[in-house]
Predict the structure.
Amino acid sequence: MTSSTVSGATAKQRSRRSRVLGRLAFLSPGLAYLIALMLIPLALIISYAFFRRGRFGGVVYELTGENFTRLLDPIYLDVVLDSLKLATAATLIALLVGYPTAYLIAQLPARWKTIALIAIVMPFWTNFLIRIYAWIVLLSGPGLVNTVLGKLGLGPFEFLYNQGTIVTGLVYSYLPLMVLPLYAAIEKLDPQLREASANLGARPARTFASVTLPLTLPGVVTGCMFVFVPSFGNFVIPELLGGGRSIMVGNLIRDQFLKARDWPFGSALTLALLAVLIVLLLLQAWSARRA
Amino acid sequence: MRKPRLLYVPFWATYVFLYTPIVVLVVMSFNAGKSPYSFDGLSLKWYGKLAGNATVAEGLVNTLIVAAGSTALATMLGTLLAVGLARHTKSRLLDGLGVLPAVLPDLVLAIGLLVFYAMVKMTLGLHSVLLAHTVFGMAFVTAVVRTRLTHSDTSLEEASRDLGATPLTTFLRVTLPQLMPGIAAGAMLAFTLSIDEFVIAFFTAAPTTPTLPIVIYSMVRFGVTPEINALATLLLAVSFTVVIVAQRMTRLTESLS
């Protein structure tokens, strides 16, 4: 600043003005965009959930709680509970498969480590729908899995279109999101801690339970969130692999908006989905603070 | 330390699980027969069929328009926002708001935008998808550039100001060049995510302007055809190349800096 030539008060005024201008210039375009295309849309979903559905599919601006009482209807509640169950199953399987994989990758020599990690991420960078399609090809009646089993004198089995297929699809789609945070947590772990535990006479299982697992718990929680969140709200995988028989809450929401044209009830369902995810995020924040 | 042998079972199982479907897709795309399940000799005929498929070509063009447009918009808005968040405010609320679209489930954003577009009576088309993709693209650009800013040295900006440069000059000639690698990385991320995005596009596109993922979705729903395998193989080749090139480039820049 050329403060020597300007009186103190003017310099202060000027710097305040440039601060305000800076704020406006840098913050306002992005924030305005987020308000218009994210906050207002979210506010619309929240408010529509309290309105009534018009007879021809529009929204009648009359306050009501009926959309939320309808959520408790067993037909819908079962779908929500089923989604919770399927997403939880996918998360646990991804954790059971992903943990040992991430653990081994962390022990590899540096060169192989990079290759192993890229190989984990690579499928994730290919089109999501095509990865699901690949499973239809594999698991369908005359598909590869049945052909191989047939050679062994087994089957053919009806693999497609059940809850197990949905879980397989979910694990397949989101496994990389489990392995990466687990790897990051395991990699940070000081190997001397494990050695110390072994030297003090702990068996590998004991070392894992009392040293490795507690110290990598934040990675476990993050990985589980990364798999659970996109699984719970999914509608593509249950539709393509579930054959429409066992639908998840995402399908229900999609149908309310695009088929049944009941936007208020669809909004209430979306809020229920958000509520579950917010509870999980709070749990994650809580566990991170404890760790 | 002894490596537990038993761990190799889930380790290899993971890779077999991840790659079996992909390998099968690629092999079957060169199948001469019509059945997607049995291999009847080598042929490129499905690639020929695909090349003549106007819907796929149109979807690809739409996707590229949306990705390029939303990336340009997201990069500008996101970079400004990141600088604003890092240098012009201490609000943690605004910080959280800036990355919220990246953590919000895609279905929630998709529905919110559908409802919003209906309320303002905007007709759906490529522009509505482009504006929608900008929302999450911006969040990723903001996040990447923001990280770079917190690690960057502010003394250069101070020196520029002390030497009498206006804030605009300082931003354009000092801050921006320093941020370039972060901006490029953020833009690349926004572009790739937009190309692959299905859920938001599905809700905000018009039936007459499907993006490539929407075209793929209808093909997959319609049934199993070797044409999808050919398309899948081409897309796989593109993504694999991009990942490998990006990897090489980061290694190169790392070794240079």
Observations:
- The first helix of chain B runs from residue 8 to 29.
- Chain B touches chain A through 86 residues (CB under 8 Å).
